[in-house]
Amino acid sequence: MKILLVRLSSLGDVLHNLPIVADILRHHPQAQVDWVVEEAYVSLVKLNPHVRKVIPIALRRWRKGLGKAAVRAELRGFFRDLRAEQYDYVFDTQGLIKTGIVMACARVKPGGQKIGLANGTEDSGYEGISRVFHSRSIPVAPRTHAVARGRQVVAAALGYTVDTAPDFGLPAPGASGRKPWMPAGPYVVFFHGTARDAKKWPPSDWIALGRALAPLPVLLPWGSPREKEDASFLAAALPNATVLPRLSMMDAVELARHAALAVGVDTGLTHIAAAFLTPTVEIYVDSPRWKTEGNWSPRIVNLGDTGAAPDAATVLAAARRLLETT
Fold first, then answer.
1. Among candidate residues 158, 189, 219, the one where a domain is terminated
2. DSSP codes of every residue in 226-253
3. Are 60 and 30 in contact (CB under 8 A)?
4. Would 170 be classed as within a structural domain?
5. Beta strand pairing status for 300-304 and 280-284?
6. Domain of residue 271, residue span
7. 293 in Cβ contact with 266 (< 8 Å)
8. Disulfide-capable partner of 222 in 53, 228, 270, 284 (CB 3.0 to 4.6 Å)?
9. Does the predicted TM-score (pTM) go above 0.90?
10. 141 DSSP assignment
11. How many alpha carbons fall within 13 Å on the CB side of residue 260?
12. How many CB atoms within 10 Å of residue 324?
């Protein structure tokens, strides 16, 4: 059985799709699973050794350079790779027009199926017109967790039940993966940055938490000039904190994987820490907790909800409990 997964972006959404691979192989051990994903997330998908082939797509970059011969050559190469195989099943678990078009361009064997979501969940970016590209559309409940949604769609199509905790297929941390900028001993990482200001946790709470966790080193990553300013502000008030250099996505993944404790707002890197089973405190400030909370391990504590941010004392208590028990 040959299966193609179409999940292009973003970081958290690609991560939340990874358990589908283990589900398929648990019930169909001989299956071959390929994946189409935005080029920025190819390295993340390749961490899962059970994905046979990763097909990069670069929609974000190609849109800016369609007039260039090099871009047109890349497009031809993409379609050549996409159509090199005939699949038994093609799954679009994102439910967008762009992912539906990619699905439409993939080849299926005679009798093969192209399957996607019949509906979106609350607060999702689902585009109903994407159903025109499906041979079968599978409904999910409006409040289905981001990890469970894709798992349920694929399970319904392949005839099994989702009855296990998600297996992201990610490797355990090893000494060889530690970077030169990481402390030699245990450290805490604060994933404080997020694109939407309403999802941020107050700086005063980050500072109170960092001081209480001393002398453990606190590492502060950033992904934009504004986030670097925020990290510098926190570090100025925390003698045990370090503002990191700009990290690649995979360096940030390693940062999450090797931490003794990760504390972060609702963002992709926090969810990556939880997927690695790094002791993680997830902080929800202005997003629904049910949608992405790490609910698969006691090493993950989820606090807050939309409009109900936890205070520093609550987060500190959870952090200390995780550090004591792991």
1. 158
2. HHHHHHHHHHHH-TTEEEPPP--HHHHH
3. no
4. no
5. parallel
6. 175-325
7. no
8. 228
9. yes
10. -
11. 19
12. 8
My answer on whether 121 and 224 are in the same domain is no
Which residue is it, tokens 């539906």? Answer: 100
Does residue 168 lie within any of the structural domains?
Answer: no
Residues 96 and 130 in one domain: yes
The 3-state secondary structure of 91-137 reads EECCCCHHHHHHHHHCEEEEEEEEEEECCCCCCCCCCHHHHHHCCEE
CB 23 within 8 A of CB 110: no
* Sheet with strand 188-191: strands edge to edge: 241-243, 218-220, 188-191, 261-265, 280-284, 300-304
Report CA-CA distances (Å) from 265 to 205, 275, 278, 306.
12, 15, 15, 12
Residues 214 and 125 in one domain: no
Distance CA 303, CA 309 (A): 8
**Given its phi and psi angles, is residue 81 left (phi above 0), alpha (psi -120 to 50 degrees) or beta?**
alpha
Rounded Cα–Cα distance for residues 312 and 302 (Å): 14
| Other Cβ atoms within 10 Å of 207 Cβ, number | 18
- Any idea how long the chain is? 326
- Domain count for the chain, please give it: 2
Q: Indicate if 132 and 186 belong to the same structural domain.
A: no
How far is Cα 65 from Cα 24, in angstroms, rounded to an integer? 37
* CATH label of the domain that carries residue 149: 3.40.50.2000
CB 290 within 8 A of CB 143: yes
User: Same domain, yes or no, for 25 and 149?
Assistant: yes
Which residue bears the tokens 């082939």?
53
| pLDDT tens string 225-277 | 999 999 999 999 999 999 999 999 999 999 999 999 999 999 999 999 999 99
Residues 198, 134 share a domain: no
Q: Is residue 263 part of a domain?
A: yes
d(CA 25, CA 32): 8
Task: Give the tens place of pLDDT for each residue, 308-318.
Answer: 999 999 999 99
